[in-house]
Amino acid sequence: MSDACCGTDAAPADDHASAPAVIWQVRELQLAAVSGVLLLTSLFAPGFWATVLQSAALVVGAATFVPGTLRALAGGRLGVGLLMTIAAVGAVLLGEYGEAATLAFLFSIAEGLEGYAVARTRHGLRALLDLVPPVARVLRDGRETEVTPADLRVGDVLVVRPGERVATDGVVGSGRSALDTSVVTGESVPVEVGPGAEVFAGTVNGAGALEIIVTATAEDNSLARLVHIVHEAQERKGTSQRLAERFARPLVPGVLVLAALVAGVGSWFGDPEVWVERALVVLVAAAPCAFALSVPVAVVAAIGAASKAGVLVKGGAAIESLGRVAVVALDKTGTLTRNEPSVIDVVTMPGVKRERVLATAAALEARSEHPLAAPIVAACASVRAGDDVEAVPGNGLTGTVEGRPARLGKPGFVDATPLSAEVTGLQDAGATVVLVEHGGILLGAIAVRDEIRPEAAEAVARLKRLGVEVVMLTGDNARTAAAIGAAAGIADIRAELLPSDKARIVTELKSRGRVAMVGDGINDAPALATADAGLAMGAMGSDVAIEAADIALMGEDLRRLPDALAHTRAARAIFTQNLVMSGTILVALVPLAATGVLGLAAVVATHELAEVLVIGNGIRAGRKKHLLRHPALRAAPEPAPPPRTLLPVAPGVVASSTCTAGCCGPERSS
Question: What is the residue extent of each domain of the chain?
Fold first, then answer.
């Protein structure tokens, strides 16, 4: 615990090795139990022995906070433990051994409960590292060798048998299986993996054996990085947490001054012994421990619960920002859609086979770098590259296929008149359409579309039920954007935007309330930074995405977004409850103590009860009530390989779905 809370100088509670497994293992609570037994026994002992037992109870209870308080004082730090120490010493000087022992007993209980609460919430996150198996099998010199995960090197071939956990991040070299990724991403549906698929540490292999090429050491894999980032996030304080600390820190010296005034002024006009005793009670009554703890415990609990459900929240500030959001701006590509364009239809001229259209198009696209090349080539059973292929900027491709000239491109570059009705229908459905011509004859048209996520409409509907406005921002053309927006249930659609346009619109949307921007964390970085809360979609394994956003949805399920919003709203409500409750008790106790209405024992009991209530209420922020395990969705068609790197284009160019150059002409990045 820090001095800002209860003032002891205890070791950090985030040491996963020292985190208590059960509450009775907490040292402070063990000593409190001994102190309590001694104090209870003193009630039935005669005068001298009662004093001895009370003194022993005081020493045992004080051992939980006095040593740390003295170390902090030597370092120039004033904490609540100092107030309790002075009050206990003063009670002893006044001969009130029972009162002093009661104070030490109750405060040691509060110290133990606080330490246990923080240690357990942080231990839950650190325990993620225990998901890495103790040994890993690697292929070295053609033989399987068992090594510790710490000995794994980048480039090693890791052998993972059915039912085993993956020891570190890597790429599947051979084998096929289904991985349970729920512990890392929160996704409840196993993920099918094969050669070339990326896998993460801690995931559980299914029925197939895998050989995985290691891409990260144990110190730098996804689990280690996750723990490191969340530990850093716990130090990022939100407005409520800063408010609590802003009042708590000056309260300690302020309380010392107040107690001195009560003792001095009261003694001047009345009985010094009475007023000195009241000053000691004021010291305890005004201790701001519960107030200082009101937010940090809840922040740690909320962050820990969210991270284990696939939502990486970077600190109390992020919780507060997302919890107050009134508008959510969604990027299209990679957020509402999968960012995996595929061929959805091939329209042919009479007498022309579908295979011929695809083969001719694939021959021209075989060595192309634009995004439509990959899905068109993937849709063709066999590809034979054409000759003399050239790009016609803003239009498409030309070349020679099987000794005859061929062209592929957008309507207008290749005459679409014979298929105009079909082309228009496909474009209205949100697809990019390219036409294929061979030997001067139109063969047909190919429609490529980035499919909407199957859960997108449900996620948008849940956001609306939470009272949040939803806006879609995209670089695609208005026709494509309208089709995707309609499918997702979004009415407010802003299309044909550059990254700078998205940032500008996010600023404009702030007139409606706080704004959250959801994107891929890279192309949308300006908008993510501009928004009150930036969220990266599908950020597991992506340092850039995690760093760009305040919150990262580590899985691919968009329903994590309304889950995260509901979770942070509940956490914010708990922050507020704790601040009001602890502040009210603090304000009420001081005058009651100063006027003698409440004695030391009553004030100590009330004060420590308040602290226990604040801790208990704060832990509720770690409940996963809103972080649901969603049922599996119907599997989408097998996606094509991901599109190649998007190329920058000149501003002001009208977009067409997913394509940035070549066959369809320039387009804005979406």
Answer: 133-220, 342-449+640-664
Is 331 an active-site residue? Answer: yes
The β-bridge partners of 442 are 437
Q: Which of 3, 9, 14, 331 is catalytic?
A: 331
Fold of 133-220: 2.70.150
Which tens digit of pLDDT belongs to each residue from 279-293?
877 877 776 667 766
Distances (CA, A) of 469 to 64, 442, 493, 532: 51, 46, 12, 15
Strand partners, 555: none
Is residue 68 within 8 A of residue 9, CB to CB? The reply is yes
Q: In what order do the strands lie in the sheet with 396-401?
A: 342-348, 441-449, 432-438, 404-409, 396-401, 387-392
pTM of the model as a whole = 0.62
* 3-state secondary structure (DSSP) of residue 523: coil
**What integer pLDDT is reported at residue 240 of this predicted model?**
52
Better-predicted residue by pLDDT, 314 or 8 = 314
pLDDT in tens, 380-419: 888 888 898 888 776 788 999 999 999 998 888 999 899 9
Q: Which amino acid is it at 588?
A: A
Write the CATH number of the domain with boundaries 342-449+640-664.
3.40.1110.10
Q: Is 284 helix (H, G, I), strand (E, B) or coil?
A: helix
Determine phi and psi for 26, rounding to 5 degrees: -75, 125
